[in-house]
Write a structure and sequence with these properties.
It is built from three helices and two strands, in the order ααββα. The chain is mainly alpha-helical. It has one domain. The protein has a two-stranded antiparallel ribbon with strand order 1-2. The radius of gyration is 14 Å and the shape is globular. Its main location: membrane.
Length: 81
């Protein structure tokens, strides 16, 4: 059962408002496999859709470090990532 709902940063209900930048907001927005330009993954016991929540590593190193730190604090990155 795959989650396909979009959220606000911190996995909050999408009806709340947020003041995060667009890169952070996009990481909490469900994207289809077409939007991510990806294909399905075939495993040993299951086939997995390639849609999901993604962060694009693009830009200055200092911005990437800051964004990853913020995503960690917002629990986008956790022990199951």
């Amino acid at each position: 059962n795959e989650e396909k709902q979009s959220f606000q940063p911190g996995w909050r209900n999408n009806q709340t408002s947020s003041s995060f930048n667009s890169v952070i907001n996009r990481a909490f927005t469900y994207q289809t496999s077409d939007e991510l330009n990806s294909s399905i993954h075939v495993g040993k016991h299951e086939t997995y859709n390639s849609g999901g929540y993604a962060y694009e590593f693009r830009g200055r190193l200092s911005d990437l470090q800051s964004n990853l730190s913020e995503l960690y604090q917002l629990e986008w990155i956790d022990s199951q990532t």
